[in-house]
Amino acid sequence: METPRGTVYREIQGFTQPFIYVITIPCSIFCIYSGVSQLFFNAPIDNEPLPVWAAWLLILFGIGLSWLIFSIRLITDVRMDGLYIRFYPLHGSFRRFRYEDIEECRAVTYRPILEYGGWGIRYSSKGTAYNIRGNRGVQLTLSGGKSVLIGSQDPEKICESVHGVRPKS
Question: Residue 165: CA atoms inside 13 Å, Cβ hemisphere, count?
Answer without folding.
Answer: 18
